[in-house]
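Risk mitigation, structural track. In case the binding assays with iron/sulfur cluster fail to produce interpretable data, a predicted complex structure has been prepared as a fallback.
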Amino acid sequence: MTALHDPLGDRVAERVATQAVRQAQAALGLLRPSSPSTSRPLISVRGEPPPRVVLGFGLGCDSSAVLARWLTDPSSRDFELHELAVITGMTGQEWPATRRLVEKHLLPLMAATEVRYLQVARRGPRQADGVDILSDTRSPDRLHLVGAWTLAHEMFDGGTVPQTTGDRLCSQHFKAWPLDTVIAELTQGQPYRHVMGYERGESRRAERDAQYNTTLRTGEYPLRAWGWDRAAAQAFLRETFGVDEWVKSACTYCPFALANKAGRVETVARFVDEPGAGVLALVMELAATALNPTQGLIKGQRLLSLLRVSPGTTAVIAAFEQRLASLPWAVYDVRRTLSPRSDGKANHARSVRILDVGPHGEMRARLDQRARCAGVSVTVGDPAFPDDSHPRVWLRRREPQLLADGTPTAEQFLTLAPATALSKTGPAFPAAWAAASQLHLTV
Ligand code: SF4
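Fallback model:
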């Protein structure tokens, strides 16, 4: 290990840091060709006459019930099947059980009735990167769950998890935007009925969706028209396909699925059944909470802690630990600013920089060395988060009183994490850091 004279000095070259991140992301299965071999350009969807009816098929129970009924009971619809297009926006990491259900029961029915099915995904982090048409066929035989750019890739790049505050931005980026983009192209400026699988109890969602109606688009909700709730949809799928339960569709790391006790019980049971599906969620949470202890997948708790105390989870935890051991690690320098807002809240801005990359043991030694150089101890965990156990070297602490008085404040620490997040400085950070530092120096 090289000698250090500055706790932030002797930083690894950005190119080497980025290589380590790409190596870690590849080990997690995140790196894809920029366009999968099956994908087609957006314009290709204009190859057929525009559909009159477009069903948003989320792969879960409700939209599956709508589709299954339309395909098996012609009296349930007032259009011909050749006028229908079914479309799914792929986030990238769907539960394997959902894939099995859809591929076994619905795709054969769609192929037999020659229903047009489009599977679409984002092609990159920016809208300018466009949309991939992963599949557009009347004889679907498999789900194309993973596109060139997935939600997990975006989360790992940014060292975060999907956020439960606000308007489900993850869903908007990875489902709503690609779907809207493709539907606009598909319908070619003609009026269409946009069908959503909202069930009887989802009045608010339906009302909200109806606000997006235009002169061309009309939202429709057949389950509500039929008076079907979730139980009725499940019962129909059970009768039609002989399945015990049509499992919920979600990303394997969805924090909304962990938001209440019933959801946590269900999700843990899914990890017990499919241990491999839990690894990505656990690594994502570990990497995100190292950089920010608030970023657990469960509010106030960690998914890892929940799994550690849940029966039957040995295999998922073992797979997680095995994967961690195979990844390159990094020492990160994390700086965060908090700038007061007029509504009493604070704007946060962040800068994350990789200082060192290498195997876990070496990186832990390097963190210790940087701590010694700074003349501070390595602390483990965060008192505000009882199950946080990340080592950190605090170089600067935020000052809540400053913030309460309407003055910007900032914090800085070094920490250790799998090398899955890129070095990144938010656009608002430099000015916010300068403001907080200026005041810090004069206080
Ligand atoms: S399933 Fe959860 S994590 Fe995935 S896009 Fe939807 S809300 Fe976000």
